[in-house]
User: Fold these one by one.
Assistant:
Number 1:
Amino acid sequence: MSVPRFKSLGAERLALIALSLVLVGAGLGWRQPMNVDEERFLGVALEMLQSGNWFIPHRAAEIYGDKPPLFMWTVALFSYLTGSPKVALFLPGLLSAATLTWVLHDLGRRLWNRRIGVIAALLFLATYQSYSILRTGQIDSFLCLWVALGFYGMVRHLLLGPAWGWFYAACLAMGLGIISKGVGFLPALMLLPYAFAVHQRWRGVVALPGQGWRWSLGLLWLLAGCAVWLVPLLVSIAQGGGAAELAYLKEILLRQTASRYANAWDHREPFWYFFVKVIPQYWLPLIFALPWLLPAWRQQLRKRDGRTLLLLGWVALVLLFFTLSSGKRKIYIFPALPGLVLAIAPLLPWLLKRWFHRRPGWRKVFTAVAMVWFCLWFVRGWAEPLKEGRNPHDTLMSEAARATGGAELVLINWREGHWLFARQPIVHFGFTGQPNADAAVYWLRQHPTAYALIPATELGRCFNAEQARKLDDTSRAEWYVVGAGADNGRCQPTAPRRVYHFAWADGPGNLQLAVQGSGT
């Protein structure tokens, strides 16, 4: 396979990293947060900046207990540094793309040679899932940074070591990955095929007998990574935490980790989901080579090649780990991709030679197709924001502010976009298990100068439709603004159990950086 050649290793590596930044960063600054995950995480990050509450994330003044805060910290930091939250949201993914490219190039070079390192980096950048994850403003685009560093440290120690410093760096990275998302420990699964390879005396693995105390120090480094957040959190709760803070601690440490894995309450899919619905699409174009790769891998394993065993064993364990959980999303198996790419890269020159040795002209066709493939990803990066357009929640909340004169707005059945793009003070009664229009009726009767944002499905029961003002639609509902005068008197609500007040200091409805003032 013809790959770019540079005189120096540094120039080669910088060129590959630059390519990753160009491809993944195409269109950066044009695109708004569009899906619920992006709206939620950007909103949480901006609320941290505004309130100064860094250890317990909040969503419109209510504690948000689904995820640890490291990703939101990073988005908040980039928002502060750049002054542009809609750019900051996507910078963690860009950082991950550069890191993964470096990791694969360096490991490919060290395990085989420079040519294989280049191939590994290019294969990763050519894979569809790399773009579907790294271009998003989601936690998984940042999680893979820590998984990549953990993976790198493990390989340096287990296959190229002994390198205890890299092993401890891997453990620290896994700890930081855990406080990004609970599955940050995934690189540790590599220890299982490693133990088997050492026991069976496979070639290429580094046996380290009689050093149990050094292995055990890895756990301390992992805990140190987790402690970056957990220790300040525990101290702050001990000094003044109430029932809500204690409930958050239980939620994030237990329910959102082990309980969610064992008995997921959303994204439930059958066991074959990844193999039928995800891999055939998101691991393109790699899967086209599987009919030739499988027997080649089998031959490598027969030769007791420890490199192949550890890489493929880790990929298989990551797939198994997520397959055993009833909750599955296409993004979950992305951490396995670097290991798969490294297992493919050394075989690709042999594979291309086998395909094209009697048809040399096809090698040029293959090179041209690869270049077109990369160009299409770059073009798509710029075209995607134009296709998506303006976030409908942005339009909706802008209309709501004009229709109400900026008065207090009650939200029911709301999504994160309503809060992120709000241009006026909002009132809500909790995100999970949201009450219906009765709660809005109660509030408007107590506060007649306020308004409520009501979906069409809830409008007619408690309000006169002819006195409501129709706003723009979103993908989920048609929306109306109503005032106290639209109350039809048919609903007799009781006081809601919880009431939350929130207002952006500087109007993140326009995605301006809000660092002054506080939510209430």
Number 2:
Amino acid sequence: MSWDHNDPRAGFVVPPMPTAPPPAPADGWRAAGVGLLNLSGLGLGYLLVRRWWLMAACWVATAVLLLVALPADPDGVSGGALVSYLVLVVLAAVHGAVVGLRTRLMWPPAAWIAVVLGIVLLAVPAGGVVLYDDARDEATEQMLLDRLERADDLVLAAGKRPFSTAESDYRRALRTYSDLRGDHSGSRAADEVPGRLKTYYTTVGSAYEDENYCEAVAPLKYLRTVPRTMDEKDLGSLATWPDDRLATSLYECGSQYLTGGVAEWTTHFGELLSDFPQSEQAAKVEPSVGTAVDKAVKDVGGDDPCKAVERLDTLNSQVSGVRGEDTAVTEALDKEAARARKNADSGTYACGVDQYKEKSFAEAVTTMNDFAESNPHHKNRARAKKIAIAAEVAQTVPAAGKRLPTTASGGSISVTVKNDSPDEITVLYTGPVTGSFTLKACGGCTSYSLASTVGLGFEPCSDSGKNYPQRTIRLPAGTTYFVHKSRSGLGKSPASDTAKLSAGYLYTECAYTTSFGY
């Protein structure tokens, strides 16, 4: 007969077999070793105590961190991700220490060896941090070099466009250079900036090298403002690089404008005299203005004297507005302005003659009257007044303007002009001699109807009972053109008469009014 050892009737009980080995005695060295090995982030402490899933979790956490951190960029790992990982590593170390306190190691045979390995393996994360910082620094350098390259590309592209459209890109590039030198000094990109600035200046000022002086003015003026943005120590000799070039451009462009009659020459010369008063370019301003005045004076005797006079008038007003810091230059320019004004005044006579020859009689009247008024002592004043009279006659009788009048006067033939008009009149005449005079209004006279003037027997100035205002002049033989103009009647057209005078006769001219004129 057999007995079951667990049967109470047998008198004793066999305890069940344990499901796991009994815990080992507490060992601080072992706990420290497991904890330190887990601090490496690889979960090696869990490996020694056979906690496979926890070790795998450590690997996953470290892999996730590497995926987030690599490749390294200037901003580094986000603070949240880094803190989360460190918390997990610390928890793994603490938990590993707790587990290792009473769990035997599968390896090594001595706990102190695990401690030594844990301390040694701490070099792995420490070295990783150092390597990562180096990688991040290199990434930062590359980022800054990329930024520098983009600024260089901006300058290169802007150099192919007019400055007016490229200025904003030049300014953006300059801000980048300034930021690199100011905020990232010591970086490779910052060290490259001084060399890039040389290219920057030559690109912005390229119009000067191409001798496009007018186009060079604006960019060179802009370059003079760069020291406000960049430290002059970074610029070195570039700080004054634009000065002489700008002075030359202001002079050359101003000279081109002056020769071409473009008003902006005054702005360029004015800036030159103000900003670079002691420069050799500033010394050329007064001679250039003098040359322009000389040419205009010479042109008064050319094919278009009116244009030359207009040019002299313009030069007078323009030169008077150009001022500089050098008193001697200003005084010299004032003399040139006065010379232009004087020659414009005297040149007005030649302009009036040209207008008369071109049959521009209305303009000739105005020009010659202005000349006579402005030049009371000029040798041509008397003839100018004659030409003005002849031009006024020619506006009504174009045939009167076939030839220029002379200053001749008098003659052998007596001509009496009477006024049978209620208006005061001016009588103008031209032919072999030219002149004018005024007749008072006839007190008892009235206008004639148009019908009466075309009837048989119409004879104005024939009423013996009236005292007609009159004047007798002496003229030479030949054709004389008369024009009678009212000085007081409004809206009345001038009347004209063409008289062919012969010696041995007495002539009478009569002025009268109709409802449609004289």
Number 3:
Amino acid sequence: MLNETASAVLKSQPRLNTQYSLRANLILCLIAIALTLAIVAPLIMLFQTAFYDDNQHFIGLQNFVTYFANPALLSSVFNSLWISLTATVITVVLAAIYAFALTNVSIRGKGFFKAVALLPILAPSLLPSLALVYLFGKQGMIKSLLGDQSIYGPIGILISYCFWLFPAMLILMSGAFRNVDQRLIEASRSLGKGVWATHYAVTLPAVRYGLVSACLVSFTYVMTDFGIPKVIGGSFNMMALDVYKQIIGQHNMSMGAVISILLLFPAIIAFIFNRFQNHRQARYQSFQIKPYMSEKNVKLETALTIFCSVVSGFILLIIVTAVVASFVSYWPYDLSLTLSHYHFEYVDGGGWGAYFNSIKMALMSTVAGTIIIFMVALLSERFKTHPLIKNYVQMLALLPLAVPGLVLGIAYILFFNQPDNPLGVLYGTMTILVISTIIHYYTVPHLNLTDAIKQIPVQLDQAAQSLGMSKWKTFWKVYLPMSFPALCDVTVYIFVNAMTTVSAAIFLYSPNTSLAAVSVLNMDDAGDTVAAVAMSILILVTSCVVKLLHWLLTRKMMAHSQRWRTNT
């Protein structure tokens, strides 16, 4: 009887696998079509617009010639390049030393230093620029430190970018320093190499891939951000700011498309180079690494503690300045406390409606994005699908990493605002903001969930099939619990980025769908700088509360569902 049952189950497995394969291929095809409409089609429209004039007549490269013939626009290329290079060098060096201290040296207060260093990632990119105005502006409390220099210009832009980029660079460099192998350090020292020679021969090769990634990411971020130079740049122009002026100020879509394409090329080159060097790095990670921890060295630990204290102190200075400025009556003359700056109904820019719109959009993006990304990752990794469809979807999943949010926003305007496009009904709605947010931040969650699914043993699938368990039950009992930590990280990642995003949303919102981060820029434009600071603090506090609630709610759940990892 048992043999007959087992035989029936085994005979039914090919039919079930074929059935699920057809379903998986159908679902993956629908996802491929949706991603094509959300990524590829807008980018094609962007490229097409750059070669046409306002009357939709093909003019070839004339728009590019016009751009490079304009001295004012051309100067922004040089400004963007040297600001990007300078900010990259400063930030990556600071983040590398900070990461080395937290990862490989036994200094005190690591938890505090790490928490403070990651705070800027929870705030909109405009926060440091607004805070610097209160510190070093015309009415700044410590403006004398700059002497005759003005904070409005390259100095303010560089300081703001260093503050904004630091958390991302720290995360990348911390991962790089975890690849340093203790055994190689000990072998080098036992062969008579000194400390500096050892680090040059062992540590530097181990972290060089992370170092290159950090430089490429930093350079791309600075090249494609317009918020910081818009707030504190003064008359100093940059390429990303040119896009904003051409689209919002002059409604010159063709020239905006030209500059967007010019910004897209550095991002694509950086993306391709980064993927290439990541593949090379994978060759050296096939063996288990014993994390490096430096020997007891009081002088080194003291120096790095002072360094981390100075960097974290500067970060806290920026944040505390913004918090205090939002609660005082009139900086710096009347420092009495007030809540009047949080009465957003008296200022332009969206007010409390924009704040609640951001929460709504962030929640919708988090729920929809997590479900879609997890479904695509699971179908790609565990279901039998056609190789062409699978490879195409995986290519589309990686493409958003090479498309800056600014470029994506322009492409969405050109594609969804076409009169003959049936998808034009989405333009100006909350739905298009959700779609753009999910697409903009798609790649990192996809890679995170894909790695998590790859770690689940394939033998569990085979055991579930031999027991006659359905795919749905296997998903519920196996894949969901084992991918829970990655899912938690993805939800917070999407929510925080949705709350702080401004690059794509600035071109897609309507009066009814204004977002908090966008309202910060609009308030500052209208001269309501204190209200802009107050809104920035609201975004920061909201992101911090969500992170805290996420940690409290998932701690016990993860302790229960991830017990198998500890046992293993």
Number 4:
Amino acid sequence: MSISEKCADFIVKYREKISRVFWGLLGISLILCLFVQVNYDLSKYLPNSSLTQQGIQKMEDSFGYPGTARIMLKDVSMGEALSYKEQIEHISGVDRVSFSTGSKSAYAPEFMEEKEKEKDLDYKDGNALFHVVFVKGDSDVQTKKTLREIESLLGDKAVYAGLAVQSKTVEEQVSSQMGLILALGLGFIFLILIIMTNSYGEPFLFLITILLAVGLNRGTNVFLGKVSFITNNVAAILQIAVSMDYAIFLLHSFETGLEKGMDKEKALSYAVGKSLSTILASSLTTVGGFLALCAMSFGIGKDMGIVLAKGVVFSLLTVIFFMPALLLRMWNFVEKTRHKPFVPSFKPLAKLAYRLSPLVLILTILFVYPLNIMQGMNDFRFSNGAVVKGEGTKISEMEEEINGVFGEENLLIAIYPEGRNDREKALGNLLTSLPYVENVQSLSSLLPEGVPEFMVPKSSLDLVRKDGYSRMVITLNLPGESQESYKAVSTIRQILKVYTGEDSYLVGDTTATMDMENILRTDNAKVNT
């Protein structure tokens, strides 16, 4: 007797005990699902070699990296706007609110706001623009809770934009829509199984088996620390799609055993033994494909690769160890719900496919190169905003409304070694002269004339000078993701190094998206290879 036959006999003999173990593990996994942390910030997956990641680390170490949002109040007087500003400042989780000044950046300390206050750039035609800085980061749970409190306070008077708003919107949309998408996916799969099988009971048998494996996979994600929202929501449907055939193969092998005159237990042992090598080979190729994602420099590859590969392994184990007991329990139900085939025989189609196969091969060879060129012409989006800011979405409409009144705001933060104020001022003047730079703020450029640096309160000074580094806020009038924005970032990085040396960093939504795109294009070729 071979090893696979001995394993099959053991599994069939102890199938009920094994089944109870799986049900127990499922219960534990469903509880663990509640503790799986989900990451909604894709920039967290940038490798340490990324210039943006290095800049984020330096900024967090020296200044912190709080979340920000732009909030526009409509049809309010200046007095009402000031009252709302004060109420927002008292909400837990809000660090500060900038409003009604020439300084359009929420990162600016209060003493910087006085220089051009008479312009009232944050109040136009009855619209007030608040720049809110949160205590925590854009994707932090506390920040999202704070945003909800602000929304409750302002009601329908306000519209919102900014990275913190995008992160909150991603979570809300994914949470509400992925449940619907999963339900639709399962519904289509169930419908296909009903049509393609000869019993109404078979789809239930397959889905119970694979959904149990999905539950085990999701619960064990807790041991990975955090998973991305993309992984968390696509893993289930992909796991079902790639491993459903394992269950189908086992059932068909069982039916073959019965056709050979075996009793149920013997047929089941035969099916498990026959399926072991076949399903193992099939699953290992799938696992290998998913693990190839771990070769990506962008961290989401490892995140997705491990979760998806783990899901296939759980599907394999569930089909081989758990499904035999379920199959015998449900067999009478499967038999009683037999029906006539809903689809005709595929034998004529198989014969036609065989005759046409040489032509198909020739056409494949002829079209593979031009089609490969065409797929490379696809236009991809890489930013966090691309996930939620589709045409017609509420967040896009709100951002367009704010931009229509106050213009676009694309913030970059420059971090560089503390040095001479005159050189910092010259750097600011040069950057301001660039056509796509709307505003530049640093201590030397915004310190009121005649006010010495030592008179600035330490709490304000720490926002721009700390631990031997200075911080400059650069506002671009370009969108967050575009070739023009990427060229602007490259130019500013070069200027920054000329004026402040190699130990300088540039951080922002555009720099993260730019690095993400460059890394992912290289990763794509690596993973495919």
